[in-house]
Amino acid sequence: MTLKISAEHVEAIFAQSVAEYPDECCGVILGPEGSDFAQVLKPMVNSAHSPTFYEFDSKDLLSLYRELDDNSQEIVVVYHSHTETEAYPSRTDIAYASEPNAHYVLVSTRKEIAPEREFRSYRIIDGAVTEEPVEIIAAIGE
Amino acid sequence: MSAPIIEVRIPTILRPYTKNEKVVSAEATNLAELIAALDKSFVGLGDRLLENGELRRFINIYINDEDVRFMGSLAATLKAGDSVTILPAVAGGC
């Protein structure tokens, strides 16, 4: 399955990863339930404030799920940044991946590939990682 | 007096244990009893919530709007009308 994502969201995620460097940044993109449409970008606070770990704040997590329920939305994308390593799911990323329907996006801003950047997407189900193509669309709805 | 019936919201990843039910219920007066009751009805669910008799680090459980870690964890008390939400942490790292 291909992840379709707007160029605007891609740029916003990279901007967040730079702004929060050296910590990992994280967030979600929400869409209507069952649509697989990455519509609304929602940056989240990394409560771990760490260059090697991210975790959504527990209160923010509950608010997020309440909001999803109220609006019949779901998490289409879960994203986070790797600051010094490849944009590939780590063992901890795989161990804690708990949304079988989500696209897990990883970006990397590691210096050795600058000015290039990495933006990659995966499915992580029962510990199995499958990379999937990313199609960057000009704008939402196209 | 019998224990109150508590409504529990189950996250997607644990719904295979509850025959895909999003909301289930069980009788309990505290969280430890609730998890034991859930595990009796939905075998294996308890093991996904507990590790060595403690709440798993990357499972968040809330009573109404409060994280149970601030309410005594497994000893957190439950009363009629309380609603419990289970959410796996969204976490990872390089």
From TrEMBL, chain A:
Keywords: Hydrolase, Metal-binding, Metalloprotease, Protease, Zinc. InterPro entries: JAB_dom_prok, JAMM/MPN+_dom, MPN, VirAsm_ModProt. One of its GO terms (biological process) is proteolysis. One of its GO terms (molecular function) is metalloexopeptidase activity. Residues 3-128 form the MPN domain. This is Unannotated protein.
Automatic annotation (TrEMBL), chain B:
Gene3D superfamilies: 3.10.20.30. Transmembrane segments: none annotated. Signal peptide: none annotated. InterPro entries: Beta-grasp_dom_sf, Mopterin_synth/thiamin_S_b, Sulfur_Carrier/Prot_Modifier, ThiS/MoaD-like. This is Unannotated protein. The lineage of its organism: unclassified sequences, metagenomes, ecological metagenomes.
